[in-house]
Amino acid sequence: MARENCGRENGVSGKVYIVGAGPGDPELLTLRAARILGRAGVVLHDALVSAEVLGLAARDAVRIDVGKRCGQKLLTQEDINALLIAYARSYEVVVRLKGGDPAIFGRTGEEITALRDAGVQFEIVPGITASIAAAAAAGISLTDRRRASQVLLMTMHRGAGGADFRLDGVSTDTTIAIYMPGPDYALVAERLREAGWPGDMPCAIVSNVSRENQKIRATQLGRLAEEEALAAPALILVGRVVAGDADAFAAGWVEAVMAERLGWRSGAAE
Fold this sequence. Notes:
Elements: E1 15-20, H1 31-39, E2 42-45, H2 51-54, E3 62-65, E4 68-69, E5 72-73, H3 77-88, E6 93-98, H4 108-118, E7 121-125, H5 130-138, E8 150-155, E9 174-179, H6 186-194, E10 202-207, E11 215-220, H7 221-224, E12 234-238, H8 253-262
Parallel strand pairs: 1-6, 1-7, 2-3, 2-6, 8-9
Antiparallel strand pairs: 4-5, 9-12, 10-11, 10-12
């Protein structure tokens, strides 16, 4: 059982469940997440949570979109925090529904702080994060011991301090999962090349993973800057594991290996 905050002594009757909605396919939800959604009195959800997942919420649940549209926030984080606290005083089950896993590149930490300060009970319900779902869709083992000793999860979005991401010292036996790469992949390629990664390093761009419009594109680091951006939500996997069982990384391996691996998945790869 996830850690809870006890707030009943402060007159708060409800509980907030911070739930991971996974990558989009409702069959990838945990049983606990689906069960809690079915009991929800109110659901505050990210914009990218799929309609199929939202459809699992209780029929009479209040649904509130608190996500971003084209980079514009509908509500500030402070507004969202205030709503969670306010609804916890009126509803027994309040769900904060986040895409992927709540603990990966979301603002769950800020929401937890606000709930604790207000004496509101909460529980975190994990979900499948995009990098895990993308690797599964592409048939990739992120930690294939023959090619990778570690995994790095990172995002192109700047942090609270405004610092840009750096890859100095990241060895090429690392599998890198780059969340929210944006529409221009040139910066990703530039930073990896600056860090000493070779141009023939395998890459996979995965868009809308687990959904009907899922796309997977294979390429190499030296060609990444020239790739047309896939629709958000998208993620880039970089590392030797992307090649699967290929022994050579010469030009031309990508198309052959990925076509063989993904060709049977109609409409899933391009």
